[in-house]
Input
Amino acid sequence: MKNNRGSSLLELLIVVAENAILLTPLNRNLDPVKTAKKGDREQLLKEFAQTKKKLGATERDLAFLAIDVVDSTGMKQGEEKAIVEHDFKEYKRYVERVLTTYGCLKSTWTPDGVMSCFTTVDAAVQGAREVVRGLGKFNREIKIMRGDFAVRCGVNSGFVYFHESLPLEEVSDRVIDIAGHMQKNAMPNSVCVAKPAIELLNERGGFEPSRRTVDGYEVYEWKNT
Output
């Protein structure tokens, strides 16, 4: 039989999981969980997982797009720092404009890469294609460095726990990991999509089987021609 203290701690864990903003001020209240005996802690986590499973309202079927600049380190070698800063800031603005146009829900950046979230695979793929197609003009008219920008894009979709207040970098799920792995597997200026995600795509023109597998999934690839 659970005591009131165990129930309170469980409720607190659920709140923290649903709203990462509360993590810092409430962290001190989690000390009893950290110091609990192994059996008690495992039971508490089991109850948390069962409760979390019931929170179906926070689980959504979403698509994720990962984009990264090809050989960004090599591009910067021998260039003036001010020019590098200018070009990569302009590149980020360019990509964010495209992502917003196609309904990006939220995104998170590494120095030269971005993971973004969309409601549909179509939106994620259209955004990826638009980024790739627009790089020619970006390289001709905006960037100053000698080297041209090229990107690799990866898309995957699936059900993840999602909350509007939770930063994307706080969401940990295999669905997102696979999108990142698809990006790493892509050729320059191409878009790789896992087979389960490609089956949800309404417009598949240009996608071809790549004869490669990533995380156990067949990879379909679109190349900018």
Notes: The first strand starts at residue 59 and ends at 69. Strands lie at 59-69, 106-109, 113-118, 151-161, 190-194, 207-214, 217-223. Residues 1-10, 18-31 have pLDDT under 50 and may be disordered. Residues 33 and 41 are 6 Å apart (CA to CA).
